[in-house]
Amino acid sequence: MPSASLLPENDPSVLFTTAGMQQFKQYYTAPENALRDFGTKNVATVQKCVRTSDIDEVGDDTHHTFLEMLGNFSFGGYGKQEAIEYAHEFITKELGLQIDYVSVFGGDKDIPADNESQIIWQKIDKNLKIKGHGKEDNFWGPTGKEGPCGSTTEIYINGVEIWNIVFNEFYKTREGAYNKLPVLGIDTGMGLERLLTIVQNKKNNYETDLFNNEKTREERIVADHTKAALFLASDGIKPGNTGAGYVLRRLIRRAVRFSKAPLGKKIQKIKNTYSNTYMLDDKGEIEKEEKKFRETLEKGMKEFEKRTDPFILFTTYGFPIELTTELAHEQGRKVDLEDFNKKMTEHQKLSQTSSAGMFKGGLQSHDPKTIKLHTAHHLLLAALQNVVDKNIKQRGSNINEERLRMDFLCNHKLLDEEKKKVEDWVNDKIKVGLEVVRRDLPFEKARKIGAEMEFGAKYPDAVSVYFIEDKNGGSVSKEFCAGPHVLNTKELGHFKILKEEAVSQGIRRLKAVLE
Ligand SMILES: [Zn+2]
Fold first, then answer.
1. What torsion, rounded to 10 degrees, do the Cα atoms 284, 219, 7, 139 define?
2. What span, in angstroms and rounded, lies between the C-alpha atoms of 70 and 91?
3. Distance from residue 459's CA to the centre of ligand 1 (Å)
4. 442 in the same domain as 370
5. Cα(8) to centroid(ligand 1), Å
6. 49 assigned to some structural domain
7. Has residue 298 been placed in a domain?
8. Measured in angstroms, how far is the CA atom of residue 336 from the centroid of ligand 1?
9. Which of 102, 143, 334, 514 is the most exposed place for a label (fewest CB within 10 A)?
10. CA 484 to ligand 1 center in whole angstroms
């Protein structure tokens, strides 16, 4: 099967395609459709993927924002025996590589050990070292609170995990039960960049045919980001201020910042590298964005060096605050985000527009789970401000049926005890049952009472503000927001933080769920 687009077609829960199985998700629960759609239950792909969660790591030997995933998939076709045999044959015979060891699921209180895989491996090679691991390492999914999941077996070469084979065997229910799926699904993933480094006997990914032996961190960031940008733009994404477009814009701008030469030559080189496989054509979008940004950069850098106020850098020179924080960090300086936010809020007041069409903040999906998570999102922001730092501001958000995600300005990684306190704060507000009330107010009044605004958004003269009211006539949260929300926080269930990580210098990202 051909690679799916980097922009997922029917999956609003993710910004980009990040794994080979993504385009096949639905076939694991309805395997008969695979036969109808592909004429077979067994397929294989080389899937383009973009992952931005490790963007700060790009520049080392192994992390990329763009990568290709090799994978074979079966929806009730072949089983564990064949999947493991194929993997062994491909690695040892086709590629002629020596396996260090393999790992299998060692079992836990929910699910017994995967003895079947262990026996299959032993039969193939009785000298093979087999390690048993728990759910942490050898169990995949579900991606949300419910869905297909199962044990995995992994192949290691030179101490590096090279291939992950997932056996989609169970459906985990919301209540936590593992029910057997009607048929076994196979889902495998092997990163091409990592594999090639081993096959070509290189020291790092940049020495392989997929790159041009970039040595410094800066060169590598330029190579990686330009490649990701070219693939994204070739899939029809344009640089913009939201969603996928915003990520593309940031990738281009970061590449420009680290590249002394114009990106044109680099773009041509990448096109040549992939010319046998992909038709790459960004329609000049990258160089258009580059030209604009170089002008901004030139003027802004001069001002940055003069230590001009970050707020002036942003409003007068269009110099993004992320860039100011990143540059300052490299020089061992800190940016006063509190001061910047204060000035931004003032500025929003001055530059407000009555164009109601620009009033954002609504939800994309109105199903009950998403609405609950939306209310939890408001509580979370209030919790961060109450528990961690009163100056924390939201910088981006994304909510789907499964989880909420919030980006916020904060200069440090949250401590475990801070995360615990935030959870407790939110769960306390859920437990006592607070009413959620919408009020339509003039913009000026809403601003005066300190309602949270979306960063950089422009608002009309009349706005709607959601209050989560406390029991004393005050409120624990007030946000400019178009809703919808639950009526009372007691509807929410139990709030839990899944993950906290850096998005870029000074911006943290939190993912959380309701159980
Ligand atoms: Zn909201």
1. 170
2. 13
3. 14
4. yes
5. 25
6. yes
7. no
8. 26
9. 334
10. 8
